[in-house]
Amino acid sequence: MASVGLIALTDLSAIYNDGVLTLNFFGDATYSFNTDKGEIAFTVSGDYPKGNVVNVTFSKMPKGVKVKLRKPEWCKGYNLSTMGKLNDGYIFIDSEINAGDTITYTFDMPYELVSSSTVNPNVDYRTALVKGPVVFACDCYPADDVLDFDFENVSVSELGNKQFALKLKNDRQVIMKKYCDSGKDNFLRQTVNVWLRNK
User: Fold this and answer.
1) Are 61 and 97 in contact (CB under 8 A)?
2) 165 — phi, psi (to 5°)?
3) Is 68 within 8 Å of 23 (Cβ atoms)?
4) Widest CA span of the chain, in angstroms?
5) pLDDT tens, position by position, 98-111
6) What is the pTM of this model?
């Protein structure tokens, strides 16, 4: 199932249809399409999602092709190096894109605390830490420990060794990792907690 999902992700990352090139995902990659208007070739770079800047550089671009970029649901703010209009979750680029052009797309990616009510309206007593599309988690953290989160001032320090310290109101801190790095210490089975209990 995982490999099928990866293939589908690759197929959906960039799509050309009826004169419109749609870019849905922003991982580093190189794309090439033979279309009814001619060959499209471009590179996406920028170390996303670790970084928040994505560059889309076109090496081949036929005349008359429109470009639209997906605005992720988590993205509350962004900047583009060119003008575009937001419509139905996508930014439609206003100007003609030519070979040699680069679109720079910068996401706002602050650390945020998210309530479990966003997933289940009946459960609002758990909290998760996210940064853009990245979700954080704790290894083997006591599920019933009640934490006093500072929802107004989210403060996270990078500690090294893939660890992050989330500061709480009472001078405590919780050590977290990106979810993809959690549960892998000492090759032992571990409980990984994304949702932590809040007051």
Assistant:
1) yes
2) -105, 115
3) yes
4) 62
5) 999 999 999 999 99
6) 0.83
